Automatic annotation (TrEMBL):
Signal peptide: 1-22
Organism of derivation: Marinobacterium sediminicola
Organism domain of life: Bacteria
Keywords: Electron transport, Heme, Iron, Metal-binding, Signal, Transport
Protein's name according to its UniProt entry: Cytochrome c556
Keyword hit for Transcription regulation: no
Amino acid sequence: MKKFAAMGLAGILAAASTMAVAAKPEDAIDYRQGVFSAIKWHFGTMGAMVKGKMEYDAEDFSRRAEIVAQLSKLPIEGFLPGTYEGETSALPAIEDDREKFDGGMKALVERTAALAVAAQTGDLEQIKPAFGEVGKTCKGCHDNFKE
């Protein structure tokens, strides 16, 4: 019984410490920047393939598109009130027009999912428009909500 109580207490303490860490603005900024860096890593390689700057590899492209689709669901958690100062280029306008920002993040999730589906075909002619839609979505948020 004591063993289970100790394990329960340890779990509660771990959860509490995680929440405290996540509440720090710099942690939220680091989190979202890390996710966006990973997205950029994969999206950049896909862009090179789409533009013909690198040999198109259907299997690698599809793998990267799936990773980006999964990653696109993560950054929204890091856009907390009070996290728009310091080592960030995210603008306070996010909070001023949260509905528009959230819509952009939702569009990112939807369009990266569509890109992952298009990538499964292996047909670059189907992939290019889907890739372009993701790029437009990124640009839309950057134009409105990033310094």
